[in-house]
Amino acid sequence: MRILTRLAADGGPEPGVLAICGLSVELAGASGAGIMLMTEDVPWGSLCTTDKVSAAVEDLQFTLGEGPCLDAHLDERPILEPDLADPLSLRWPAFSALAVEAGVAAIFGFPLRLGAVRIGALNLYRDRPGPLGEDEYADTLIMAGVAANAVIVAQADAPPGTLAHDLDKTADLQLVVHQASGMVSVQLGVSVREALVRLRAYAFGHERVLGDVARDVVTRRLRFNGSGEQQEKG
Question: What does the angle CA 205 – CA 96 – CA 18 come to, to the nearest 5 degrees?
Fold first, then answer.
């Protein structure tokens, strides 16, 4: 009841994802938060972020294909890393160093689900190392449930294949990447998921931003041929 009262005060009777992210930061004693949307096992991008660092965290996870949001969604459980610079085990070889460089000291991912429906994850970061306290952990679990419900309710009346207007206002869904994945899928005769992996590998190997690689594919400046090699066109 305490959390619902705060949400009603901050975001009205139907709080948006940005209000939910903001309250999650406060309740968890975090520095920032974001919500990543996923369908099946494929990330679609961020529904909201609260600051530049959380936006960078969401972008890194989408670009690299690893991080707490993806693990929380796939494993269907909270993923807690209280000291990203000195973890007990290195979970995310590519993500961790870049996230620390961006200002992340601790990071936590909580799955968004309602019954059997899984839609992504709530991500929290801190600029100092340390675990979530018991109350902070419990409150964040509640906020993840609230976020899942808010997304499903908002999306209920949206036309198929589109994002609800209330969600689209704060979202960064990297649609050009998904368009490029579809094109690479046809070029290589692989699944869209595998095509996204190929795009990520190409971007990483050439030290390029994934979105820029995707735009080259969409504008036909870059093509993946059937043998897996890439051919660039002028």
Answer: 105
Whole-number Å distance between alpha carbons of 195 and 165: 29
Q: What is the pLDDT of residues 168-185, one digit of tens each?
A: 566 677 778 878 888 999
Q: Which residues contact 61 (CB under 8 A, 6 or more apart)?
A: 36, 43, 67, 68, 69, 70, 95, 123
Query: Is residue 145 domain-shared with residue 223, that is, in the same domain?
Result: no
Q: What is the DSSP string of 115-161?
A: TTEEEEEEEEEESS--PPPHHHHHHHHHHHHHHHHHHHHHHTTSPTT
Interval 60-69: pLDDT, tens: 998 888 999 9
Give the number of other CB atoms < 10 A from CB of residue 176. 17
Last residue of one domain, picked from the residues 123, 153, 168: 168
Distance CA 118, CA 15 (A): 20
Same domain? For 27 and 8 the reply is yes
Spatial distance between the Cα atoms of 189 and 160, rounded to a whole number of angstroms: 26
- The CATH number of the domain holding residue 184 is 1.10.10
Question: Which of 221, 17, 207, 223 lies closest to 94 in space, CA to CA?
Answer: 207
> What are 77-125's pLDDT values in tens digits?
999 999 999 998 889 999 999 999 999 999 999 999 988 889 999 999 9
Does residue 36 share a domain with residue 149?
Answer: yes
- State the total domains in the chain: 2
What residues make up the domain containing 76? 2-168
